[in-house]
Each structure stands twice: as C-alpha cells, then as structure tokens.
TrEMBL record:
Residues 451-701 form the EAL domain. Residues 309-442 form the GGDEF domain. Residues 150-221 form the PAS domain. It comes from Caulobacter sp. (strain K31). It comes from the Bacteria. Residues 219-277 form the PAC domain. Residues 714-735 are annotated as: Disordered. This is Diguanylate cyclase/phosphodiesterase with PAS/PAC sensor(S). One of its GO terms (molecular function) is catalytic activity.
Amino acid sequence: MFTLRDTVSSLAPARADDLGKTLYERFREEPDTLIVPVLDDEDRPIGLVERNAFFLRMAAEYGRALYALRPISVLMDTSPLVVEAEVELAAFTSDSLSYRASDLLRGFIVTDGGRYLGVGTVLGLLQAANETNRRGVEALAAAKAAADQAHTFMTAVVEAIPSMVFVKRADDHSYVLLNRAGEKMLGHARADMIGRTDVDFYPAEQAAIYRERDAEVISSGEVRVIEEDHVPRKDGSIALLRTKKIAIPGPDGAAEYLLGVSEDIAERKRAEAQIARLAHYDPLTDLPNRLLFQKDLSAALSRAARREDLVAVHCIDLDRFKTVNDTLGHPIGDALLKTAAERLRACVREGDTVARLGGDEFAVVQTGLTDLTGATRLAGRIVEALAETFDLQGHQVMIGGSVGVAVSPNDGSDSDELLKKADMALYRAKADGRGTFHFFERAMDEALQARRALELDLRVALAEGQFELYYQPLFSLGADRVMGCEALLRWNHPTRGMVSPGDFIPIAEEIGLINPLGEWVLREACREASGWPEHVRLAVNLSPAQFRDKHLVGIVVSALAASGLPASRLELEITESVLLQDSVGNMSILHDLKALGVRISMDDFGTGYSSLSYLRSFPFDKIKIDQTFVRDILDDADALAIIKAVLDLGASLGITTTAEGVESVEQLDELRRQGCGEIQGYFISRPKPAAEIAAMLGVTVENKMKAPLVTFSHGEKEGPATKSWEDEGVRRQEA
C-alpha cells in the first residue's frame, strides 16, 4: 500500500531568519520551486512560503524595500499542511480534498517523526495514484466498487487542481483528458478536445512545435518544462503558461500516455516585472532611480568614447524644497517633486536620462554633445523651469533650482567621478546664491580636498586638545572699566598655525562636532573665569545646534558647579537663528537657563527679521548692536538712526546695550553721545589669551591643567579688522 513516503520530493528548506532578498534570488534561480518550507533549529517545520504569494507581496508598493532585509518569518504561512510520511496515500488525499484542498494543491510538507523529510505536490500524488491503479488493476477489476472508488478519487483530484491537467495518447497525440481548469484557460470545452489533436485547434506551424515537444518527452522518458509557453485561446487572446510534461508508461514499460500540468504565470510575471521596475524606478515620480541612472550613465560614456563626443551630467537640487515640505506638509512636498519631475522631463531631448537620486536631488545624463553650448542651454532651461511658480493644491509655491554640470571626457570618464564633480559644481552654484548653474572647475576639487583634510584635522584637534580660548573685554562707559569678557575659540594647528574660526566653525557644525566643542568651551571658560575679579562677567556664545541637545541646561549647571563660577556672572549669547529654529522648544530652554540666574543676551541685534518680536516674548538681559552698524556710524545717517533707536529701545526696556566692533575714538565718542552703556572692539582690546587677560585684570594665574575636551559656539567675530592698534590693553580716551 502506498504512503506519502512514496510521493515525497527532496527540497532544500529555509530558516526563519533567512532574509527576504535571499528567498527572492532563490525563486528566480529555481523556476520549478513553487514552495519553500521553513524549519526551526531542530528541523521541525514552522511555516511555508508559496512562490506566487511571495512575488505578489514583493511587488506591492514599497514591497521590496519592506521585505528584502527582513526575515522570511514575516512572510511565511505559519499554518502549512504538515503530514507524517507513513500516512496512507488514498486516505490522505481524500481527507485533504475535503478539509484543506487549497493547501493540498499548492504543496505540503512531509515529516518523519516530526522532522522535515521533504515536500509533496499534486503532480507527485498523480504519479503515485497512477502507479497504484496500475499495480492494483486486477484487484480492482475483481471488485467493481473499489474500481469506481479509485476512478472517483482520481477524478476528484484532477478536477480540483487549479492548474490545467491534460493527458494525451503517446501514439497519436490525441487528448484523452482535460480538467476544468484547462477548459477555463484555453476556452475550449473538453468535449470538443477529447479525441482530437493540437492541429485541430492551433495553426499548423504551432501544432507541429507542440507535437515535436511531446515526442521528445515520450522518447526520453524525462520530465520537460516549458518556462514560458504562449498558447492561443479560443477567443484569440494569449495564455502565458508554464508547462511540465512527463511520459506515463503502460504495463509493458513503454510510454502509453503523456501527462501535462500547466500553470498560468501571467500574474506572477506581472509581479516580477513590477519588482524589477521598483528596483530601477522611483515610485513617486516614475523617474529612473540612482541605480538605473548609473547604468545609463556608464552606457552613455561607453558610446561616447567610441563616437568621440561629449556627455554632460547635470546635478539638480530644489532650492527651498525642505521649507515647503516642513511648512505645507509631505503631500504638498510629494506633489512638488512630481511636478518638478515633469518639468525636467520637458527640458530634455529624447534619449537623455532624467533621474531622481533621492530626496529633492535630481540628475540628467545629456548625450550627443560636440561642445559645451548644448549643456549650457539645458542647464539654463532647467533653472528657468524650476524658477516658475508651482500651483500645488491651491498653494502658489516658488522654490527655484540650482544646477551643477560636469562634462566627459574633460572632467573624467568614470560615472562616479563625473557625478562627484557635478555635485561639487552644484555646491558652488548654491553657494553663489542658488537659482543658477555652475560648471565644474578644477579649483573646486582642490577646495574639496582641502576641506576634507581640514575636517580630518578638526577631529584630531578635538581629541588632542589643540584648541584654546581667547577673551575680548567688554568695557563699561559708565563705570570706565572692564565689566566682562567674551570667550572666543582659537585653533592653534601644529602645522597650519592659527586657523580662522570662519574656516573651521561651519565645518564643525556640518560634521556634528559643534556640540562637544561647544561644551568644552563652556567648561574651560567657566574654569578660567572663576579666578577673575567678582565684577567681571563671562560671555559665551551658544550655537543653534547646541539647543538641539536636550542636555544643554544640565551641561551649563555642571560647568558652573565644577568651576565654582556664580550663575549671575555667566552671560550666554545667542543669535536670532536660535529662535527661528523650533522657537517654542528653544524658548523653553532659554527660560530654564534664565531660572538658573544666568544672563541671556541677543547677539548681532538688528541683522534679522524678527528681533523686535523676540524682545517682547523673552526678557533678554542684553542686546548687542551688530558691528555693521557701528562701522558706518560716522558716515551713514541711517546707521546712526538705527543705533539711536536700538539704544532708546534698550533704555525703555531696561536692557543693557553693547556696541560691537568699535575701532576708533570717533566711533566711541559718538556712541557715548548717544547714550551707549557698553562697548566691545579692537579700540579697547584685541582678543587675548587667558593669561594676558588675567594679567590685565590684575589676576595671578596658577598653572592649572586645561579642562578635558568634551561643546563652542557660534558667535565668533568675522576676523581681524583692517586697522590694528599698537596699544591693545584697556585704555580710555583722555578728554
């Protein structure tokens, strides 16, 4: 008597922690594999992944991105049909058709003592059932009831299979069987097909191909698979089938019949095509993605090398996309990206590639150029197209775009190199004010290499303690003495010498070093200022980036506690940009700092858009008039009027006002006449090292170790003034 052990097929199983992408590749490499069992560490089955269901999920929107790197445990059916190998074949098939027909048809797992043995399929059941019938023909003939039961069993199995099952005679290739699924797939009634051959239904040439294939199977005795068989239906449409054929031997061992099972793979092919498209196209804009862009660029460069023409790469950035996305929401941002993609398509010729590289970054491969004229014209068209107003669901939006261009072979013949250089040119275009385009220049690469070297040196400097603090006095005109000093960061590079803060502070902000650097500044400045006379306050600048650190208030408390500096002697300077970024959250932090007793001042007052509104919403202790106004106070009536207005405003609000950038006695006299209470600038003193400032304040400095490097600030002055003074100490003009 046959059991399931006689039908089992060997198939390599998977493990629950295998990744989706691994299974995807396996299904692609093994087209005959329709199911994959999933086992635990003890080789016991815990699930099953079915080929068609898997491809449909991977083809869904973002399916590959969601499942490629996730374990297949999230994709598997956790309740597969599992049966022991010693179960009787006929009983199993009958029970399964009654209770779990769909599981039987897709495939099931066979175990031996609970551990995985192999898989069972409908084709295997059919073959075993046929062998059962052949061996038991004499016994069945003696018992008609048993013969009828066997016939009923076979008919039930064949009719329930969702794939087309057909049987032909081996001698004349006429049909002797076609199941219900076959009728549906082909559109022909089985009554019309039984007893007839393919030549009665298909064109002679195609019928001859089918007959030749069948003859090969019959003569070889081997299983043959036609991966993609385009079969005409009765209504003229085409069925896309995957067909497996095998010869069925008669009592004498010679082939008597040909058994075929055909699966409709149209839906699976559509799913595979969708997956392939998702791998190469951006789902939002339907533009090629970075992967396909790189392929197209490499192909274009190869063609151009043979033809000796030029290829231009345009890197494109939407200038104010982030603002639109943040203020109007992601749906408007998505609509903007799609509309921008349409405009870019309209700018290029057929044969050029427009791609979305990610975010608001796009790129174009322009081919067939003989000189730079065509690239210049295209870059100009792109800038003009993106400068036009976007109408997005009732919102009128203007963003603009910047373009960087690199051209092969002058700028390189490698796709990565060209893209990198086009990106450098884009960076220059944005630095030049945006809404423009720029071609790559060799100096850009040199500047980038220099910047990268500075970035590496900056990381080393933080670790090795190459930074030091200088201090610039704040002079009270009323008390005629120094009432405070502002801490300014200096980098004494071992080979470069003194590096300008304007060179390294922006890099520190970009690469995430500004917070540890700023914390070190705060701690070191508090430590050094703790030895100054009690009337001298310490001013430290805070970067907007430091306000994104939720521990900022705690860091200030710790620096004060470690140094012993009273909170009332610490003055923290911020710029308006701190309040422009997350104004509610940053305002809360400012109130917490104020509650400690720390003084808060607004630096560069008058250079922003909303300074006056912030004076109403937060009780600042000081406002500092930006040096651009002080510089023009003697020659520009408007600058003088602005300074006078700020001084009057400060007096009315009870806020101290400091004028920055005072460089001459004439500026000092004018500020005194206008009622300014405090000044800072080269006329009073240049920034000096801690020891010199301490000596100027009459303090003897002990040889203390620097505080360990742990975060600086942003309010460094622009650089040395054009005029220097021999006397850099504190001095006051004699009447």
